[in-house]
Prior knowledge:
By secondary structure, the protein is mostly helical. It has helices spanning 2-11, 14-43, 48-84, 88-123, 128-143, 145-160, 165-187, 197-221, 237-269, 273-309, 313-349, 354-367, 372-387, 390-414, 421-444, 462-469, and strands at residues 188-189, 192-193. Mean pLDDT is 84; it is low at 455-473.
Amino acid sequence: MAKSRQDLFINGSIPRALLTLAFPIILANILQAGYQLTDAYWVGRVGADAIAAVAVSAPVTFLVIAMGSGLAMAGATLTAQYMGAGKQDMVNHVAAQSMLMVTITSVVLGALGYFLSPHLLGLLGVTPEVQEGALGYMRVSFIGVIFVFIYVMFQSLMRGVGQTRVPLFIVLATVILNFGLDPLFIFGYGPFKGHGVMGAAMATLVTQGIAACIGMIIFLRGRHGIKLKWSGFKPDFNYIKKAFFLGFPGSVELSTRGLGLIVMSFLVASFSTTTIASYGIGSNVLQVVMIPAMGLSMAVSTLVGQNIGAGNIQRASTITLLGTAYGFTALTLVGCIAYWLAPLIVAVFAPTDQAVIREGSQFIRTMCLAWGGIGVQLCVVSAFRASGNMLSAMIIAMVSQWMIQFPLAYVLAKHTTLGSAGIWWSFPVTNILVAIIALCWFARGSWKKTRITEEDIQTIKVTDGALTEEGYR
């Protein structure tokens, strides 16, 4: 079965291979969103202070997780390329070293976050009413960072070898478990004491811990494409150096995106409550729309990585272009539907507020017809990552957030008659421009020349190589 799947990825029908990989990833992403909605549902029943505690804590923990997520990108890229090259021993070696690295990184970042939590909340200007719940929630979240990192790496490595179904089943089980544990830890039951908003973080810690343990057991048994041995966890400093240089731009990319969202929130907060609510609703709708696009881009990444490892560079290029076409078409169609149904969509979140329905509909209708650009850039950037060109993906993210969207939103909103509508217009303009930039960069073909799995090179300085290739030196 595994061999037939591998043959499909390297030699078979590209549309079938994309769908085979993308469908379970999309379902897993939807379930992951359900995980977050479950927390929001139960925390919302504690009160406004509890909601605020989660709201101020989430961006901080997201940034910490983003700092270590580059290692997951590096691990997924290397396992995909080694899998495509048929080097199972290197697949196992990369997996063991990657798990070692994320464990150490998560312990360090989690400990720092735990002890710095009061200071971080002070910097955010949290009110005393929110402080207690936020501190408990944040500290428990930082304790659980190790499990989050381990499971994220497990998912990334499994995706790298083309196995997407097992992580789906694990996410399904943990979502169901989390739904039951949330009210127990938040409100308590019988002799079991509830812990308020901190209980939501405790439930997440338990479920993520179980998921991480299941992932490690699967790796140690070796039945799904990766087999770990305890001896494989002996540090290989040549590999660690290589993975660090490969993964660092990925961490910067995700951190940049996270900071960009925070800065945009500050800009939106300078307008009326109606604008803030409209932005929140539109952003939630956008996150839902991106779920299938992200699933497709992850499938593209796996297939491109494996085909580069197998030496099928032209097939990797075809996969990227086909995935891009699928992403553009699908998200454009979804955008057309959203344009038609915009008032109904906003009314789901704000059924009685006509001002929010009106402005929220304007936001959705302004950006939705350009959603196809999101599908384009996600698939192209995933191909860059899969080839080892993490720096290219990082630069595109930085250009998107800091050179196009935020400056454009600020100028249009604050220095034109558009007002809050200027923020809305920054979305479609950014999506179109970044899609064009990504396609032009892809057409240059420099990504095809990167080699990160050559065995005769002991340490590959990926960042320096990428800089030279892209003409920055």
